[in-house]
Amino acid sequence: MFLRRSPSVVSGYFPGLNYVPGQSFLHRAHPLVKLVLLVGFSITVLALPAPMAGIALFFALLAAYGMARLGPGFFWRKLRMIVLFGLAMVVVQVLVVKEGLLLAALPLYFFSLEIWSEGLRGGLVMMLRFLNIIGSSYLFVAVTNPNNLAYALMQAGLPYRYGFMLITAMRFIPIFQRELNQVRSAQMAKGIDLEGASLPKILRAVRYLLVPLVITALGKVDHLAISMEGRAFGLYHRRSYMQSQKLTWRDAVFLASAFIFFAALFFYFY
Amino acid sequence: MEKYVATIKNLSFTYYGAAGPALEGINLQLRPGEFLILTGPSGCGKSTLALCLTGFIPHGYTGLMEGTVEVKGLDTRENTPGRLAGLVGLVQQDPEMQLCTLRVMDEVAFGPENLGLDPAEVTARVRWALAAVGASDLAERDLYSLSGGEKQKVAIASVLAMRPSLLILDEPTANLDPRCTAEVLAVMEKLRRDEDITVIVIEHRLERLLPLADRALYMERGRIVREFRGEELSVQAAQYRPFYRKIDRAGKPRVNTPAPPPRLQVEGLAAGYEAPLLKDVSFSLYPGEIAAVMGDNGSGKSTLLQALLGLLKIFRGKIYLDGTDITHEKVSRKAGWIGLSFQNPNHQLFESTVIKEAELPSLFLKGCRPGENRRVLSLLEQFDLLAYRDQLPFALSLGEKKRLTLVSLLAYSPPVLALDEPLVGQDPHRSELLLGALQEHRARGGVTLMVCHDPAVASAWCGRILFLEQGGLIIDAPTEKAFALLAARGLTHYLPGSSSGFITGEG
């Protein structure tokens, strides 16, 4: 049961990036506004090396999680590995970097643990950057309906063929995951031993799963192509949209406030 | 106004690389508002004809096309499927694979948006199309949350929103359970009653369709060999030919004789992926029994078959074969005792030729060498597959693939057969072949569990019905008693006479 167990182990430590339906202001904000803010936030995080800037951005991020009604429990559940990894980076920096002021020296059995200001500062900056970038990306995914994002991108000028590649991928990835499980079960039902995690078993699994999976996928693609082309997909260069996603004054105020905040951080810390 | 919506003249088509034509000498004229049924055995050319009418032949498939097809005066040779999209629409078998967005409203709006129509017009069309299939309440739903029947309704609405003059439905109920089938049939009845469009329905099972039809065409080997109209059609509808012959019920344990020990015994089985989907299922099957496993889509039928083989996590319960506990045996060992064929045969095919595919399980499970199991050849012949022995299995039709997987199981004679919808894609003759093979298995004392949506098959061929609902076994009884219990619970879609009916080319 190698293939089936692995995802659950992985997902235990790295919970999935999923849209979490909701009605908060952040959920309802225009998807492109959220995308622009994510880019702006990330640039600010990377451009400002001061720990205080990182801390200010981290609190802003926590406030945004609060606005999205995704509480501390959600933050910890999704980002605990990132927090632990960030703390590990702080420890490594403290152990390795011996520059700046000596803040503390703890005599231990074999050696003395010295904490230097540059080591601590460097570690904190790295941890905060890491947390802020990943935390903001998680938040963006959690509050942005991917379907709305794709439609918003197409309405903003992304060629609709690419937009629908994104939408059909979102629709079919879970279907193909299910197919893979089915193919695996079906081959095992023929007496092919795919249980266990040894290298020969994995190679055997790939050999016996790949062909049926690809053939099934191609068959499905045929049906999908008939369905889409039969409804005039690709007939014209442009298409219309039943529901247009318009910017509201709330979106504009939100965007402006956020950029004033980023500008203030640049002013103080750059 | 044009007299005909579509005109086909002397149409023949041969797929590239095929030995013979898929269509030959087809002449057909379709009138506005006509409701036409297209039927015939698997591989007779019905779906190819649909592809010709929609322009995918010659534009999407390579082959030799002769004759002409015109839809609303447009020649399909000169107009791509996209250009014909507002005139003719095709709904395919599998609802899952023809939906390309994430929400119902987006899906139905997809076609009109591609035509670049004004948003107000798109909205009006979406509302009309959803109302036409009785699915207005689904507008705001996500597609993944819909049942199979609801998905098929949305697929029909999404094609209707293009306002086609000709709507073709290619076996729209083939993948659906009786409840969902009834929903889709109701849509067709509504379309017939309320909308003035020409409808072609490609179907095997016709009982409820015949009363709606103006014409029914029977195809065989790429030709239209018979046409039923008016009175003839009414006669067919009244006395449709149920092809299933009754069997004796010797396989069932008799009350007044000492019952033999059960061949397969399941006690309190709970199985699933992360959590049990199957809850506390218990039953026993005796030598020679054929049991129909019935229930709505998602009720746990396929889960039960896969759990028997250990393909899912078993949370609780025991499985005994001839009194021996096999619950925790390795799957590759259990496969020698329980032969499982899957709903989608493509999942099980792998080899480069039909003959290799047929003997593959025998190699793994019986230790045979290639070519050693002579039964494979006789089974291929019995199942009309010997002619394809050196062909690629993936090139076979759905029905042929299903027969091939059954051949590969019968070749090593497991005592238990677990078959997931083996009759899908089979015409009456081939269905009878399959069911005949199950009789031979039964005569040797084997037991069969067969997921089956057709009450007529269950009634004629199975001694027992296991009916599942939401993962629980709610009915386990001999066939007649099970039907009485189903009737008492109001599950009338599962009663004989509710969905079957064929017409044939015979006079």
Protein architecture, described:
The complex is a heterodimer of chains A (270) and B (507). Chain A has 270 residues and is mostly helical. Chain A has two domains: 19-144 and 246-269, no CATH class; 153-229, no CATH class. Chain A is built from ten helices and two strands; from the N terminus they run H-H-H-H-H-E-E-H-H-H-H-H. Chain A has helices at residues 2-13, 25-28, 31-47, 51-67, 72-96, 117-143, 146-155, 160-188, 199-229, 249-269, and strands at 102-107, 112-116. A two-stranded antiparallel ribbon of chain A has the order 1-2. In chain A, strand 1 and strand 2 form a beta hairpin. Chain A starts with a helix and ends with a helix. The model of chain A is unreliable at 1-11 (pLDDT under 50). By secondary structure, chain B is α/β, with parallel strands linked by helices. Chain B folds into three domains: 6-238, Rossmann fold, CATH 3.40.50.300; 261-336 and 416-423 and 438-498, P-loop containing nucleotide triphosphate hydrolases (Rossmann fold); 338-413, no CATH class. Chain B contains 16 helices and 20 strands. In chain B, the strands form four sheets. In chain B, strands 6-7-8-3-9-10 form a six-stranded mixed beta sheet, sandwiched between helices. A six-stranded mixed beta sheet of chain B has the order 16-17-18-13-19-20, sandwiched between helices. The radius of gyration of chain B is 24 Å and the shape is globular. The interface between A and B is large, with 53 and 69 residues.
CATH architecture field of the largest domain in chain B: 3-Layer(aba) Sandwich
Mean of all residue-level pLDDT scores of chain B: 85
Low-confidence stretches of chain B: 240-257, 499-507
Largest sheet of chain A: 2 strands, antiparallel
Across the major sheet of chain A, the strand order is: 1-2
User: What is the number of helical segments of chain B per DSSP (H or I, 4+ residues)?
Assistant: 16
Helix content of chain B: 25-40%
Shape assignment of chain B: globular
